[in-house]
């Protein structure tokens, strides 16, 4: 079942023509927050829980949530295979927190049997900061998004422990730990722009979606 | 670059946002915690006795042994919650020192203070609190709760109270949405909740924090019904480990919570689960044994 969330929040004149079709993986997590940000930026947003729904989008966001649960449900309901194929085929995908874990080629501190979809040439450590008491927010410089810093919220978040030659670092913490990366059409952040009113990562992602839809 | 800030409202409420669409399971041993994580729980609630046993064994129910909480934290990588008694701020201090991820100020335990709830703003660890109606939810949020769960009637396997509470909260929110400013002042008085929070709910049409449902959820269909009634997720207490096949039931409840609007999936996952917990009809419970009436 596809739920379209755009009608109420998108200006009437520009609706149909410009909005790229973007899905948000809706197995578990804060997928509605992503859907609202994307709809506000003019995307035609749908929730994706099935392979048929994945086939109907030009880009996908994998939200924050519990990565072990999203992994398990994506395999149980036959989405993991189509997701891997879509990523290999160049589908633009943006993952936040659990979504970054899903996009990493290699995981550390995963639960037994946990798998990622892969695509980003990075090693990601789950729960890298510790328990919720160590969760935090901070200002982050992200040169690719302009001068103004990003307010970044880390919630039991992962970090990128090592970056392979195919991936590019977009942001690091003051101590040097990498928390935002991109590689071709894939984008991953350890933190959650969707809950702070920060829209530049989603705009950056949508520019990838639009560029690919045109090509 | 600024100093990292822990314990902000956004950080506390944010973890609950990430649990949405998920199932939080009561566990009393590390082995049960492992089963819950493997079945796809988004978090576990560590406690010594599930509500059904608290109910049948009676006596004063308190915070769990720190050794048990440590053992459960060591066993799993998903968030671990633990319960403190209503008003027992020292139990909450201990749970924060144990580094649990969320503290549940819970009516399932025996209250330690019949007047005051814990001042939850003074903690770095976030709190979840129970509520039976909108006013109670907003009072808890005013005290610093970062997540609300409707109470239901824990340890019964009877979902009727959970239904009543989520419907009550939803209908009270809907009433606020249709009110004018001047009416909201009266509504705040009647709800016994701060005007600013009442206004926020009227404007946004939802609670300012995540709302899960708890108390009596025993089957995949129960969980899906709570989601269709507007819950952000579900707590399952006695319903899993008091059933015939906890592994299968836990996994089935997780799937039904994700595909809550797809009866074919719910039917499929409901097959062959063995016996559900036996349960008690809430109507048969004498008033002193109704946990939902604890807290105010």
Topology of helices and strands:
The complex is a heterodimer of chains A (215) and B (296).
Chain A: H1 15-18, E1 21-25, H2 31-40, E2 44-48, H3 51-55, E3 59-62, H4 67-76, H5 80-88, E4 93-96, H6 98-103, E5 104-108, E6 120-125, E7 136-140, E8 150-154, E9 159-163, E10 168-172, E11 178-183, E12 186-189, H7 200-214
Chain B: E1 5-6, H1 9-19, E2 23-27, H2 30-39, E3 43-46, H3 51-57, H4 66-75, E4 80-85, H5 89-97, E5 102-106, E6 127-131, H6 134-142, E7 147-150, H7 160-177, H8 181-191, H9 195-204, E8 210-213, H10 220-228, E9 234-236, H11 238-241, H12 246-258, H13 263-269
Parallel strand pairs in B: 2-3, 2-9, 3-4, 4-5, 5-6, 6-7, 7-8
What does this structure look like?
The complex is a heterodimer of chains A (about 220) and B (about 300). Chain A is an alpha/beta fold. Chain A has a single domain, classed as Rossmann fold (3-Layer(aba) Sandwich). Chain A has helices spanning about 15-20, 30-40, 50-55, 65-75, 80-90, 100-105, 200-215, and strands at about 20-25, 45-50, 60, 95, 105-110, 120-125, 135-140, 150-155, 160-165, 170, 180-185, 185-190. Chain A has a 7-stranded mixed sheet with strand order 2-1-3-4-12-11-10. In chain A, strands 5-6-9 form a 3-stranded mixed sheet. Chain A starts with 14 loop residues before the first helix and ends with a helix. In chain A, about 55% of the residues are buried. Chain B contains 13 helices and 9 strands. In chain B, helix 7 crosses helix 9 (about 195-205) and helix 10 runs parallel beside helix 12 (about 245-260). An 8-stranded parallel sheet of chain B has the order 8-7-6-5-4-3-2-9, with helices on both faces. Chain B is globular and about 55 Å long. The interface between A and B is large, with 47 and 43 residues.
């Amino acid at each position: 079942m596809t739920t379209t969330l755009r009608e109420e929040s998108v200006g009437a004149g520009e609706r149909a023509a410009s909005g790229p079709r973007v899905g948000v993986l809706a197995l578990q997590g804060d997928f509605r927050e992503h859907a609202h940000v994307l709809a506000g930026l003019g995307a035609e947003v749908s929730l994706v829980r099935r392979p048929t729904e994945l086939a109907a989008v030009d880009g996908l966001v994998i939200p924050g949530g519990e990565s072990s649960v999203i992994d398990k449900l994506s395999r149980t309901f036959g989405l993991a295979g189509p997701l891997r194929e879509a990523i290999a085929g160049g589908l633009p995908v943006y993952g936040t927190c659990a979504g970054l874990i899903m996009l990493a080629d290699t995981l550390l501190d995963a639960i037994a049997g946990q798998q990622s979809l892969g695509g980003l040439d990075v090693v990601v450590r789950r729960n890298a900061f510790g328990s919720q008491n160590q969760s935090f927010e901070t200002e982050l410089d992200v040169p690719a998004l302009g001068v103004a810093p990003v307010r970044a919220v880390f919630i039991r978040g992962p970090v990128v422990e090592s970056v392979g030659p195919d991936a590019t670092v977009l942001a690091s913490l003051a101590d040097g730990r990498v928390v935002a990366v991109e590689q071709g059409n894939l984008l991953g952040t350890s933190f959650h722009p969707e809950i702070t009113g920060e829209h530049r990562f989603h705009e950056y992602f949508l520019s990838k979606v639009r560029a690919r839809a045109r090509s | 670059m600024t100093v990292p800030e822990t314990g902000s409202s956004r950080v506390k409420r944010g973890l609950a946002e990430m649990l949405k669409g998920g199932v939080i399971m009561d566990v009393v041993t590390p082995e049960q915690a492992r089963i819950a994580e493997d079945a796809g729980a988004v978090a576990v609630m560590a406690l010594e006795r599930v509500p059904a046993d608290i109910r049948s064994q009676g006596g004063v129910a308190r915070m769990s042994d720190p050794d048990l909480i440590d053992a459960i934290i060591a066993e799993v990588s998903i968030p671990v919650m633990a319960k403190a008694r209503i008003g027992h701020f020292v139990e909450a201090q201990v749970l924060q020192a144990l580094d649990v991820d969320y503290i549940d100020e819970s009516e399932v335990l025996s209250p330690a203070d019949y007047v005051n709830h814990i001042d939850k703003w003074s903690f770095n660890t976030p709190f979840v609190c129970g509520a039976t109606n909108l006013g109670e939810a907003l009072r808890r949020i005013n005290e610093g709760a970062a997540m609300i769960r409707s109470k239901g009637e824990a340890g019964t396997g009877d979902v009727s109270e959970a239904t009543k509470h989520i419907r009550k909260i939803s209908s009270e929110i809907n009433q606020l949405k249709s009110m004018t400013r001047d009416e909201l002042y009266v509504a705040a008085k009647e709800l016994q909740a701060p005007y600013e929070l009442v206004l926020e709910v009227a404007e946004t049409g939802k609670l300012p924090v995540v709302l899960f449902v708890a108390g009596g959820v025993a089957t995949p269909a129960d969980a899906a019904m709570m989601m269709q009634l507007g819950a952000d997720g579900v707590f399952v207490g006695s319903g899993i480990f008091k059933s015939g096949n906890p592994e299968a039931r836990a996994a089935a409840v997780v799937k039904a919570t994700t595909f809550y609007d797809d009866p074919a999936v719910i039917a499929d996952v409901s097959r062959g689960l063995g016996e559900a917990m036996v349960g008690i009809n809430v109507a048969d419970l004498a008033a002193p044994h109704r946990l939902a009436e604890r807290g105010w």
